[in-house]
Amino acid sequence: MFTREEASRFVPHGDGDPRTDVVLAWELLYRLEPELYDRLARAERLHPGVLDWLPRGLDRIAEVGAGSGRLTLELIERGRVVVAVEPARPLGQLLSRKLAAAEHGDRARVTHGFFDQLPLGDDFADLVVTCSAFTPAAGHGGDAGLIEMERVCRPGGCVAIIWPNNLDWLAARGYRYVSFAGPMSVEFSSYEEAVELAGIFYPGAAEEVRRRGRRLVPFEVLGVNPPRDLAFKVLAS
Ligand SMILES: C[S@@+](CC[C@H](N)C(=O)[O-])C[C@H]1O[C@@H](n2cnc3c(N)ncnc32)[C@H](O)[C@@H]1O
To answer: In 3-state terms, what secondary structure has residue 79?
Structure first.
């Protein structure tokens, strides 16, 4: 499934087993069943406070690990040019189709790349952003990835990590934290979809989702922290 480059990041020792390695299982999902991932991402919508926080009227925006575009489609109206970097080709193709269908989608393009090797020049963007993709692990960003995102960001620009998963690690590297309050639910399109997707992605909560009988499922029922927060750094001018 993986190119040599991908394998060096996601299965560096060549002995990965997706039945026990959850991170590897997600990487396979992005390549084998991108539409299934997209159904989940559509349901797990970002807190409106996160979207309101993102600056508008920008010249260039770079998004890394754009996936099927949960955030990318929100960025189109915020910048003159949006470059979405995505390593998993099936997800990138899905995102390209969505952008082609979106109003002003021609402002955005999808390109192949990784956190630690971004195909963009120094100081390229006013905003370099990532959502539910960056982690301190080397294969999913790490120090090399953070340095790359900051290289691509212009002086005075902002690097933002939405739905971050290791706040102490980011704080130690100068990132500030913002979180937005309020109840949040996963917004499945129907009760049937809630049962189906919970069965696949949250098997431990599937019975409770079935019992509740609703399409909206609070994140806490699934045991997941909601996408209500971000870490950011404004680079020195
Ligand atoms: C959970 S998905 C999030 C996708 C999208 N940003 C969203 O919010 O739905 C994680 C994404 O990170 C991408 N990714 C994984 N490793 C990466 C790397 N080393 N560099 C850049 N992106 C990576 C995956 O291909 C996938 O698109």
So the answer is: strand
Q: Which atom of ligand 1 is nearest to the CA of 71?
A: 8
175 within 8 A of 232, measured Cβ to Cβ: yes
Mind listing the pLDDT tens digit for each residue in 58-115?
999 999 999 999 999 999 999 999 999 999 999 999 999 999 999 888 999 999 999 9
Residue type, 23: V
| Closest by Cα among 130, 235, 93 to 173 | 235
Measure the CA–CA gap between 115 and 220, rounded to whole angstroms. 30
pTM: 0.97
Q: Is 133 in the pocket of ligand 1 (CB under 6 A)?
A: yes
Give which of 164, 137, 134, 162 is closest to 149, Cα–Cα. Answer: 134
Q: Whose CA is nearest to atom 27 of ligand 1?
A: 67
Q: Is 162 in the pocket of ligand 1 (CB under 6 A)?
A: no
Helix (H, G, I), strand (E, B) or coil at 83: strand
Closest ligand 1 atom to residue 88 Cα is 25
